Each structure stands twice: as structure tokens, then as C-alpha cells.
Amino acid sequence: MDIEKAVDQAISEMPEDFVLKDFLMAHRAEVKGMMLTEYNEAETNELFKRDGKMETLVDLVKKGLLSVKDAADQAGLSSEAFQKLLRNEGSEYWVAGVGIGGTTCSGCPAL
User: Deepest of 9, 57, 80, 99, by most Cβ within 10 A of its Cβ?
Assistant: First the structure.
């Protein structure tokens, strides 16, 4: 049975007095969407590690403890791309053009 059918069946077979049944029936499409969205823990952890690495590299360059060239090499970027990252990051760290706070940066490199 696929997930969509399983969600439909689970909601339909809930007892009538189940507290969440009315809510789940009214929001059935959203429930299915949530169930179909695959959470990939390994990918999420990798993004957190990459964010942390970029934050550390930016901090080290700003403190003068690491050159832009060395930081760019560590990040897998050109020196020019890392310079753009430094100019555009403000108080946030940019990965794939999106800051940690969710704001976007069209000039930032996609990592």
C-alpha cells in the first residue's frame, strides 16, 4: 500500500470520537504532503556541518587567522566566490544563496 492510501485509510478508520479526526479530515491533503515529504537525516546533518564550516572559515578570515585563499580552498570555492560570500554575508552565513535566517542573497555563490 502506498503512503497516500495508508493515510486515507488511517484517517477513515479512526474512531469517530478520536480528538484529531475532524482536524485530520479537514487537512487531509496537508497530512498526505507531510507524510510524503522525506526527511533525510544524513542530508540535514551534512547541511548543518557545511553551515558550521562556512561560519568558522568566515570567522577565521575576519580575525586574520586564515587567508581568503586558504579559506576558499577549504570551502571548495574560488577566492573570488569566497570574497563575495564575505561581502554579502553581513551577520549571516550564506549557503546556496540563502542565509541562516532565511533571507536570500543573489550574489552569493551556490555551494
Answer: 57
